[in-house]
Write a structure and sequence with these properties.
single chain; 247 residues; alpha/beta; TIM Barrel; 27% strand; globular
Length: 247
């Protein structure tokens, strides 16, 4: 299991939203690049970066800043937010991004998804953002009524190699993840699943590891100090050199 500290960017700053609401924003740092370096120096080797402005606008608003993060971090960086065309995907791959997280376009544009499966099958996951049992789109503003689990099964059969599953109602509340849902996903979806939303402390990481998810994205718990990042890395046996022991 891999740990992904989150850097969510809005207006050039590191922020966290509560339940994806842009009117409930907390700013945690003015410089996302320095935050990435700070994580790197603590032993983090996998990073989750989201262009929140890009998610709303449908284009990479903070693309140049994310390129700087990739250069400074020197590790595995996955990026989401506004990746809705092969040209945008190409920009990020050229910038050195390790993996893209496709959201809205993966749900609404089958041609784009098919192109990504054909050309870059190992370099993207699909973000499944769930609100009220539906799929949240366009920066979590709109909701599609398709069943998320059915979408994940269908996409995995088409060739999608993994998913980031976010329970929006838990996101930013530090109330714990939806463990029951991840247990269902582990039994049903035959590709890697990364958990996101509500993770608060080391015990949540331990439980998710027992369930068998492939990764966990943690944001607010790290920024508020609820989770001791070096301790979480030790739990998962992630060394400062980036290697992971048996877990």
């Amino acid at each position: 299991m891999q740990l992904y500290p989150a850097i969510d960017i809005r207006n050039g700053k590191v922020v966290r939203l509560t339940q994806g609401r842009f009117d409930q924003e907390t700013i945690y740092a003015d410089d996302p690049v320095r935050m990435a370096i700070r994580f790197r120096d603590q032993g983090v080797r996998h990073l989750h970066v989201v262009d929140l402005d890009g998610a709303r606008e449908g284009i990479p608003v903070n693309g140049p800043l994310i390129r700087e993060i990739v250069r400074a971090f020197k590790g595995f960086v996955q990026v989401g937010g506004g990746v809705r065309s092969k040209e945008i995907a190409g920009f990020y791959f050229d910038a050195g991004v390790s993996r893209l997280i496709l959201g809205t376009a993966a749900i609404t544009d089958p041609v784009f998804l098919g192109n990504m499966i054909e050309r870059h099958p190992d370099r993207f996951f699909v973000g499944i953002d769930v609100r009220d049992e539906g799929l949240a789109l366009n920066g979590w503003i709109d909701v599609d009524t398709q069943d998320p689990l059915e979408v994940m099964v269908r996409m995995s059969e088409l060739g999608v190699r993994g998913f980031v599953y976010t329970d929006i109602h838990r996101d930013g509340l530090l109330g714990g993840p939806n463990f029951a849902r991840y247990e269902i996903l582990k039994r049903t979806v035959r590709v890697p699943v990364i958990a996101s939303g509500g993770i608060r402390d080391i015990s949540d990481i331990s439980r998710l590891r027992e369930i068998g998810v492939d990764g966990a994205i943690v944001g607010k718990a790290i920024y508020t100090g609820e989770m001791d990042l070096p301790e979480a890395l030790r739990l998962l046996k992630i060394s400062p050199g980036g290697k992971q022991g048996a877990s």
